[in-house]
């Protein structure tokens, strides 16, 4: 199991991805975001997750360039993810959107590129474009986001390449048991967005009690739970103290009973849109 902040997991194509990274959802372009990325890399984070629709790839790229220089790192030491937005799910549109993301980020390649949402009737064509980008060496790994089991089955029916990642909403109120089991069986790695349920779990008594046993915050307990479920996780923060705190989860281990107690908090409750019922 992962032992430290830079521990990695091999995806099914052999590419190694850090278990833990920084998400930048809803963080606007500007100095705060640049500084958050610099802080994260300084604290040892090696994975940054953004998306075209976040509208912040320019600042993410700026933060990456400054962080690499300040820490004496090469581009290859960072794992950078972006995502294809719904408006660009055609074949040519997807290729163009990828180039635009690379230009905004100021990078020569991406480590991971994801289809952001499973728009009915459109994601298969987009996946062909991602397969081309992958085969051409423009991206090291490709995957999807917010796909349910039936979406994955549909996508893989006729696909050349199986997704390496499925990034979904995953937290103690939405444990996605069926999806987790299916992705494991298929050797697709699950990655959690909104692992802290946008702060809604911070006063949850079970999590507080477990945290107090270890001298850990509720956030640290949840992020540790993710890792022990072998789910890659990308908590979002712009505050230096929180970025550092979120990463301090490698010096304790939850017991099987504690893992079960956290699993039991599931209510199939989402803070984000339902992948089977969205209109954007």
Folded structure, characterized:
- This is Aldo/keto reductase.
- It holds the Pfam family Aldo_ket_red.
- InterPro entries: AKR (IPR020471), AKR5G (IPR044500), Aldo/ket_reductase_CS (IPR018170), NAD(P)_OxRdtase_dom_sf (IPR036812), NADP_OxRdtase_dom (IPR023210).
- The protein is of the alpha/beta class.
- It has one domain: TIM Barrel, CATH 3.20.20.
- The protein has ten helices and ten strands.
- An eight-stranded parallel β-sheet has the order 3-4-5-6-7-8-9-10. The protein has a two-stranded antiparallel ribbon with strand order 1-2.
- The protein is globular.
Query: What count of structural domains?
Result: 1
**What coarse outline follows from CA principal-axis ratios?**
globular
Largest sheet at a glance? 8 strands, parallel
Helix content: 25-40%
Mean pLDDT: 96
């Amino acid at each position: 199991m992962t032992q430290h902040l830079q521990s990695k997991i091999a995806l099914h194509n052999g590419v190694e991805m850090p278990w833990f990274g920084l998400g930048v959802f809803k963080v606007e372009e500007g100095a705060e975001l640049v500084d958050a990325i610099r802080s994260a890399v300084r604290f040892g984070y090696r994975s940054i997750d953004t998306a075209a629709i976040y509208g912040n790839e320019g600042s993410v790229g700026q933060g990456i360039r400054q962080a690499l220089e300040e820490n004496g790192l090469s581009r290859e030491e960072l794992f950078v993810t972006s995502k294809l937005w719904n408006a660009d799910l055609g074949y040519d549109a997807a290729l163009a959107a990828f180039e635009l993301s690379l230009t905004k980020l100021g990078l020569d390649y991406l480590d991971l590129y994801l289809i952001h949402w499973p728009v009915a009737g459109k994601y298969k064509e987009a996946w062909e474009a991602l397969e081309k980008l992958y085969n051409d060496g423009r991206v090291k790994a490709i995957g999807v986001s917010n796909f349910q089991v039936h979406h994955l089955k549909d996508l893989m029916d006729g696909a050349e390449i199986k997704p390496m990642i499925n990034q979904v909403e995953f937290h103690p109120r939405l444990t996605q048991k069926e999806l987790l089991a299916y992705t494991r069986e298929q050797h697709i790695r699950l990655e959690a967005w909104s692992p802290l349920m946008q702060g809604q779990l911070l006063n949850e008594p079970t999590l507080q009690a477990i945290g107090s046993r270890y001298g850990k915050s509720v956030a640290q307990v949840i992020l540790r739970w993710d890792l022990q479920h072998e789910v890659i996780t990308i908590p979002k923060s712009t505050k230096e103290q929180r970025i550092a705190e979120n990463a301090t989860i490698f010096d304790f281990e939850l017991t099987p009973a504690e893992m079960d107690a956290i699993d039991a908090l599931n209510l199939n409750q989402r803070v984000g849109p339902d992948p089977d019922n969205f209109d954007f």
